[in-house]
Structure formats: structure tokens, C-alpha cells
Design goal:
This protein is an alpha/beta fold. It is built from ten helices and eleven strands. The strands form two sheets. Strands 4-3-2-1-5-6-7 form a seven-stranded parallel β-sheet, with helices on both faces. It has a four-stranded antiparallel β-sheet with strand order 8-9-11-10.
């Protein structure tokens, strides 16, 4: 879903690498990506046109052209719909379209959606029935956004979001999934089928590989349910035990059957930590409070293994951030991240949220 940070590795033998690719992590999935200057926008649009012109010489099939055309149109329209809401936090809720209103998981989704809307968050779902409808019912139409997939069965938009201007209809699952992940600040997974597992595992893969800025992921079961506990057993006995994942990867998500705990997991993630971005070879955490000197020393001791050279340091906005005036008030934690230890990176965020004192 995402291009490599190293543009030259993706260049074809007879074509130059993309000279415009930013080396500050700007290709990462994030709703808080830095704004581009007008000349940068023009350059990137020119590149899109150049790629389109090259298609004529590639002699693509009609099917290939239809796929590219439809995907580009879907994404353009979806970006336009989401753009006015980029300053507002959003949680994506995944779960089965087949869950019935009398099932406990349905009520869990209602309660979670309502709790997040009460905290001024938008609730984004696949806009269909079941868990998706329940999340929207809890949040209410005003606080709901939908990304519907057009299928010949079971996927008409639910009555809460149907006809709303915040509803996007898409043909392709891959464009839809990109929107779910790119535009969210948190993910909540309730029990579901193949689609729910696919969406949840893709989110974890993007976090594990650093292709998505860190967000909280909570797996919410029905009260007393074992759906996600069984998933955890599989992860521990089949993946972790065979060293197919690292122990730190388990920090990328939390499991609960308690709605207030799920809400706290999401909200507490942003207690001190606000957002992140790469600036050249440095990772910058924006923090809502400044760690003490003693705590900074503790961070340097406990998390030294994720730094390639130098130490964690504190600063104000970096020069390249001067145009992001709305973020100027935040303290920066700056370090050279090894770009591998993403589970430990999540643990660092948890450490900051637990230990840094707010004013």
C-alpha cells in the first residue's frame, strides 16, 4: 500500500528515481502529514500527469486502465470528503456486518461509539449493518463517517449514515482499507469474519513495519467473550512461540471486554503524546508536556536500544516545522530511531503517557 522510503529502490531500470520524494517520512499513512507548499503541490500533480502520459506507451490492457482510473477517482473524492475533518480525531471501528442488534457485541459497539462521540471524536466505519451500524448508532449521524464498499449483497449503507455527505462509496477494498487506516487516529476491532481479521492484521502489519504512524489499537470483545482472547492464544502459541514475531510486537494492541477500558486505551494514548514525524534521519515526537531532566535521563537509559546514534533530546519546533504554527506549542522529543523496533516505540509512547506530568 505504501511506497518505499528509498525511492531509487522502486525505480525501473530505465527510469530515474522520484527526485521529489521527501526523506522525512512524508509517505507514511497519517492524517497529520505536513502541508505542502504550492510549488510542491504543482510538482506532485505534474508527476501524476507524467505517469498517466507514460501509460499510453505501455500499451496497458483495458482492465488495467479501468482499475487505475477508478482507484484514482475514488481516492481523490475520498480525500476531498475527509479534508474538512482532518483536524478532528477519528476512531475507525471494524466488526462484522452480520452481528444482530440483540447480540452483546452490537451493544458494545453502540456504547463505544457513544463514548467516543461524547469526547468529540468522529466514528468511522464501513457504513454497513451489524457492528458498523451499531458504532454509528452510538455516535449519531453528526459524529459518524462511513466508507462503504459496493457489493451485490449485505453492504448497503446503514440508515444512520445513508445519504450523509460524510459517506464515501468505494468499489475496491484496497482503496477503502487505505482510507480506513490513513484517516484514523485510533482503531477499535470487535468480533467479525474474514474482513475484520484482514483489516485488523493489516493495521498491525503497517504499525509493525513503520508504514503507519503509531496509533492505539484496541480489540473489544463482548462482555465475558473469548473471541480476542482466542486470537491472543493463537498469536502467542503459533507466532510468538515460533519467533515469527517479537515479544515487543504484542505492545501494538490491547484486548479488553470492557468499553470504558477501550475508551481509556484510546484517550490515554494522546494524554502526553500528540503526533510524530520524520525530519531527515530523526524521529520527532510532539509532546503536550515537557519531560523532566530526570525522566529524560531515564528514557535515555531504558530505550537506548532503539537509537542508532546519539541520545534522546528535547527541543522546540525544528526549522522545517516553522509553517506548522498550530503545532508550535508542543515540546519535541528528538532521536535517531532505528526504524525496526516499532513495538518498543509504542512502549516509549506508553512510558511518556504514564510518567510525564501535565501542567
Amino acid at each position: 500500500m505504501k511506497p518505499s522510503d528509498n525511492a531509487r529502490s522502486n525505480a525501473t531500470p530505465n527510469e530515474p528515481a522520484d527526485r521529489h520524494v521527501a526523506h522525512d517520512g512524508g509517505d507514511r499513512l497519517s492524517p497529520l502529514a505536513p502541508e505542502l507548499a504550492p510549488n510542491q503541490v504543482a510538482d506532485l500533480i505534474a508527476m501524476i500527469k507524467e505517469v498517466a502520459d507514460k501509460l499510453a506507451g505501455d500499451q496497458p490492457s483495458r482492465g488495467d486502465l479501468k482499475l487505475l482510473s477508478r482507484a484514482l477517482r475514488e481516492l481523490r473524492y475520498a480525500f476531498k470528503i475527509f479534508s474538512p475533518y482532518r483536524s478532528r480525531r477519528k476512531v475507525t471501528v471494524f466488526g462484522s456486518a452480520r452481528t444482530q442488534p440483540d447480540e452483546p457485541a452490537y451493544q458494545q459497539a453502540i456504547d463505544f461509539g457513544k463514548a467516543m462521540a461524547d469526547l468529540k471524536w468522529l466514528v468511522v466505519t464501513g457504513a454497513a449493518s451489524g457492528i458498523m451500524e451499531a458504532g454509528h448508532r452510538g455516535a449519531g449521524r453528526e459524529n459518524s463517517m462511513g466508507i462503504n464498499i459496493m457489493l451485490p449483497f449485505e453492504q448497503s449503507a446503514n440508515p444512520v449514515i445513508a445519504g450523509d455527505p460524510k459517506l464515501v462509496n468505494m468499489k475496491y477494498f484496497f482503496t477503502r482499507k487505505l482510507l480506513f487506516v490513513k484517516e484514523c487516529d485510533a482503531v477499535c476491532l470487535l468480533p467479525g469474519g474474514f474482513g475484520t481479521l484482514d483489516e485488523g492484521l493489516e493495521v498491525l502489519t503497517l504499525l509493525q513495519t513503520g508504514k503507519r504512524d503509531m496509533v492505539p489499537v484496541v480489540m473489544l470483545d463482548e462482555p465475558g467473550g473469548t473471541y480476542w482472547k482466542d486470537f491472543q492464544t493463537y498469536v502467542e502459541t503459533r507466532l510468538l512461540a515460533r519467533k515469527l514475531i517479537s515479544p515487543e510486537d504484542l505492545a501494538l494492541y490491547q484486548i479488553t471486554d470492557h468499553v470504558p477500558t477501550a475508551v481509556d486505551t484510546v484517550i490515554n494514548f494522546y494524554r502526553v503524546y500528540h503526533s510524530m514525524r520524520y525530519v531527515n534521519n530523526q524521529l520527532v515526537f510532539r509532546l503536550q508536556a515537557r519531560p523532566s531532566d530526570a525522566l529524560l535521563a531515564e528514557i535515555n537509559e531504558q530505550f537506548a536500544s532503539i537509537v542508532t546514534e546519539g541520545q534522546f533530546t528535547l527541543s522546540g519546533p525544528l526549522p522545517v516545522e516553522e509553517d506548522e504554527t498550530e503545532l508550535a506549542k508542543f515540546t519535541r522529543l528528538v532521536f535517531r530511531f532505528n526504524r525496526r523496533s516499532l513495538g518498543r516505540l509504542r512502549m516509549l509512547i506508553d512510558f511518556l503517557n504514564e510518567r510525564v506530568e501535565l501542567p
